[in-house]
Design goal:
The chain is globular, with a radius of gyration of 17 Å. Strands 1-2-3-4-5-6-7-8 form an 8-stranded parallel beta barrel, surrounded by 5 helices. The longest helix has 16 residues. By secondary structure, it is an alpha/beta fold. Helix 1 runs parallel beside helix 2 and helix 7 packs parallel to helix 8. Helices cover about 40% and strands about 15% of the residues. The structure holds 2-phosphoglycolic acid (PGA). 2-phosphoglycolic acid binds next to strand 8.
């Protein structure tokens, strides 16, 4: 099965409900290209409203994080079932900002991936190296390890529905994106890593690039053979910019 490109907007800690509604309304009213799946991940506080607003639209809903337990005394946390209840299809897991500011380690990330699948959510697993790791020539080692840890516990039938986002940390929010070639090489490596567990499934897994994706550079990534879409932060807060990134992922008809 060919991999359908996926473009995901990660709104991070931006937008009140009113602002989120304004942004989502612009997306819903625009002409979205066929052949590209589009999702937005508003903050938790706006999920219910945006879910209602997206009813009948092809734009899918995602959350930015999730807790792994189904319920209980976990003050401040949100369970997978609470997200599916609001109509979420996707959830970002292990974003580098969560790893960096909230101490999420690979074990936590793995639990979240498993819990997401167990409740019918599609996890978007984020991996990527820090600048010092890149400079030390450790990109391959770091990224492979991050993927292998999750693969060790994931059943083979969950490899193809999984979405992975390769997000070099030095490229996130810095305006300094990787080159298309560089990103394609690492994404290819991630696919190889998945393939060691199940090659057929690995060929179907969507692997996105994220990190300073803009309308100006989106095509450089979308044209790479291994890259199946984008996880977009800053540029997703502006409907016109986000749509331009989406359009750059339209596959020309064959
Ligand atoms: P950015 O963020 O596009 O603002 O670099 C990407 C991300 O963090 O997912």
């Amino acid at each position: 099965m060919p991999r359908v490109p996926l473009v995901v907007g990660n709104w991070k800690m931006h937008n009140t409900v009113a602002e989120a509604r304004h942004l989502a309304t612009s997306l819903v009213r625009s002409d979205l290209p066929s052949g590209v799946e589009v999702a937005v991940c508003p903050p938790f506080t706006a999920l219910a409203d945006i879910s209602r607003l997206l009813t009948g639209s092809p734009v899918r809903l995602g959350a930015q994080d999730v807790f792994w337990e189904p319920r209980g005394a976990y003050t401040g946390e949100i369970s997978p079932a609470m997200l599916t209840d609001l109509g979420c299809r996707f959830v970002i897991v292990g974003h580098s900002e969560r790893r960096q500011h909230f101490g999420e380690n690979d074990e936590v990330v793995t639990r979240k991936v498993r819990a997401s699948f167990a409740h019918g959510l599609v996890p978007i697993l984020c991996v990527g190296e820090r600048l010092d790791e890149r400079d030390a020539g450790q990109t391959e080692r770091v990224v492979t390890r991050q993927v292998e840890i999750v693969m060790a516990v994931l059943p083979a039938d969950q490899i193809s529905p999984l979405v992975i986002a390769y997000e070099p940390i030095w490229a996130i929010g810095t305006g300094r994106a990787a080159t298309g070639q560089e990103a394609n090489r690492v994404v290819g490596l991630i696919r190889e890593t998945l393939g060691r567990k199940d090659a057929t499934s690995a060929a179907e897994t969507r692997i996105l690039y994220g990190g300073s994706v803009t309308p100006a550079n989106a095509a450089e990534f979308s044209h790479q053979p291994e890259i199946d879409g984008a996880l977009v932060g800053g540029a997703s807060l502006d409907a016109a910019k986000f749509l331009a990134v989406v359009n750059a992922h339209r596959r020309s008809p064959v």
